[in-house]
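Entry for the shared binder. Reason: the reviewer on the internal report wants the predicted structure included alongside the sequence.
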Amino acid sequence: IPYASADSEDIYAGLKRSGRFIPTRRTANISTSSLITRLLRDYDKFLRRQILRGISREDLNISSFKESQVRIKEKLNMEIDGLKNELGEIFKRWERQSNLWLGSFIRRFETNRPGWTASP
């Protein structure tokens, strides 16, 4: 299949003549653009996983700034998750304590008023 452009009938003709061109087979319903988009979208996730696995920035071909950026973002995410868990525990304790106080309040007035019953 020739790959034409405005300047050439086949932009890969030189590579084909030298035997360095390997044609790709098209697969129905698979878009090269969507594959590239997915790769680029998930690139930061990929870098994070690789850095956390101990792969060096040199092997990943990224700058020290990018490595630091990924590590700082991971640390911030861990801190945020920790805060969310801590707040969740505080709210659970607060709810338990308020239920105890409310129950104590109801029992106090329930016993002081004969004939009065609290509804559940």
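Summary line for the report: The chain has one domain: 13-112.
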